[in-house]
Design brief:
Blueprint: H1 3-32, H2 42-50, E1 55-59, H3 64-76, E2 81-86, E3 101-104, E4 122-125, H4 131-156, E5 161-165, H5 177-190, E6 196-201, E7 204-206, H6 214-225, E8 234-236, H7 237-249, E9 256-260, H8 261-268
Parallel strand pairs: 1-2, 1-4, 2-3, 4-5, 5-6, 6-9, 7-8
The chain binds NADP nicotinamide-adenine-dinucleotide phosphate.
Length: about 270
């Protein structure tokens, strides 16, 4: 190896160590202000919640998070009635799903389907599309307009606890359309004044997606492989779903709460 190659190798090693150290510092800073979730007796909480005889609806139950969320909710049997609201009828083989109610709606004319949103205590929203799939306008239509209108109808229909799956980095002042749209819809739903509004801001979702999304696949592979160095940059979809359910069981929380990726991991790790 000549002097030039040796210096280049040293510079590269130094740079790699520097980047990993920086990631570790950012990770520490991001985690250090996260409250530790107290130990919980989940079985007792589930039983307590079951006694309340509450009902729920799920928007986006055909999507990856929605499917995982529905599975958690059905398995834990915490609601007396579960309604799926979506643009198409879903079929389930498992007998455990036979009591689900399904309301098929036209999201372009949601006002005509106000009845579908009536009488649910809890609402979960896992709706969403991508700019690649729907174009910029179509993305805003789904991730902002459909989500906000659904929340308005749910509030008018008596829903007291609304859960919104948003995204890490959501910020209504962002210059990125994705983050800005997510931040705007969070803020507008907050203004509706639900008794309780829970916002989840997961990082890159780790899931074997049915649909092909090459950019997401590359991000997942990279972040999945380095999840111990970058634990706040990705999250398994099952953990998000479990966190949404465990958080539902925790009555008496703040009126508006924003759960960042680390807080979702803490809650979703509970068995
Ligand atoms: N992917 C990530 O890494 C990531 C990270 C952070 C946050 N998020 C956010 O998390 C949320 C859930 O993500 P996901 O990956 O679980 O979602 P997903 O698998 O893409 O599912 C999206 C859901 O929205 C419905 N939907 C999409 N376009 C629609 C339309 N035009 N009209 C009616 N319904 C429509 C889909 O219904 P159909 O089945 O009928 O299409 C499906 O139920 C999204 O808001 C996403 O932005 C994602």
């Amino acid at each position: 190896m000549n002097i030039f190659e040796s210096n280049w190798a040293k510079t590269l090693s130094f740079f790699t160590v520097f980047v990993v150290a920086l990631a570790a510092v950012f990770n520490y800073l991001e985690n250090s202000d996260t409250d530790e979730i107290p130990r919980m007796d989940l079985n007792a909480m589930e039983e307590n919640y079951r006694q309340k005889n509450r009902t729920c609806f799920i928007l986006g139950a055909s999507g990856e998070t929605g499917k995982a969320l529905l599975k958690e909710i059905v398995e834990r049997n915490i609601f007396s009635k579960i309604t799926l609201i979506g643009r198409r009828q879903l079929t389930f083989e498992d007998k455990a799903y036979e009591n689900l109610v399904q309301n098929v709606v036209d999201f372009e004319k949601l006002d005509e389907y106000a009845e579908a949103f009536q009488g649910h205590d809890v609402g979960y929203c896992c709706l969403g599309t991508t700019k690649a799939k729907a174009g910029a306008e179509g993305f805003v239509r789904v991730d902002h307009d459909y989500v906000l209108k659904s929340a308005e109808l749910a509030k008018a229909g008596g829903c007291s606890h609304f859960h919104l799956e948003s995204s890490k980095g959501a910020d209504k002042t962002s210059s990125f359309l994705y983050l800005k749209t997510k931040g705007q819809v969070e803020a507008e739903i907050e203004d509706l004044g639900f008794e309780r509004f829970s916002v989840y801001r997961p990082a890159v979702l780790l899931v074997d997606r049915e649909e092909s999304r090459p950019a997401e696949w590359v991000a997942q592979k990279f972040l999945g492989a380095f999840s111990s160095v970058f634990p706040t940059m990705s999250i398994p979809i099952t953990v998000v779903a479990r966190a949404m359910v465990v958080n539902t069981l925790k009555d008496g929380e703040k009126r508006v709460e924003i759960l960042e990726n680390k807080a979702i991991c803490n809650l979703g790790d509970k068995k």
